[in-house]
Amino acid sequence: MIAPGLEAKFMEDLFRSYWWLLFPMAWFIIVGWRAWLRYLRRRDTVDLIKSYAASGKDIPAGLIDKLSRRSEG
């Protein structure tokens, strides 16, 4: 076990040596969050299309366009 004073110094040295890793980790988290939100939007759009199909109504063309537009971007 590390003594309390040495543990604080160890953490400080670790941060000073690897502070730059915060940027790739932040990028990874942001990209993952955006992908999750994109997935939720697509899932909601597909659920809406399913509800239109289940009720026998015509699916609006704008809804299909919105779905295909998201898959490209």
What is the structure about, briefly put?
The chain has 3 helices and no strands. With 73 residues, it is mainly α. α2 (22-55) runs antiparallel to α3.
Describe this structure in words.
- This protein is mainly α and 73 residues long.
- It has a domain at 23-72.
- It has 3 helices and no strands.
- The radius of gyration is 24 Å and the shape is rod-shaped.
- The mean pLDDT is 87.
Order of helices and strands: HHH
Low-confidence stretches: none
SS elements, strand count = 0
Shape designation: rod-shaped
> Gap between N and C termini, in Å?
51 Å
Number of helices: 3
Which radius of gyration do the C-alpha atoms yield? Answer: 24 Å
| Strand residues, percent | under 5%
Structural class: mainly alpha
User: Helix coverage percent of residues?
Assistant: over 70%
Mean pLDDT: 87
Q: Can you give keywords for this protein?
A:
mainly alpha; single chain; 73 residues; 3 helices
Task: Please render the helix and strand layout as text.
Layout: H1 4-18, H2 22-55, H3 61-72
Helix pairs in contact: 2-3
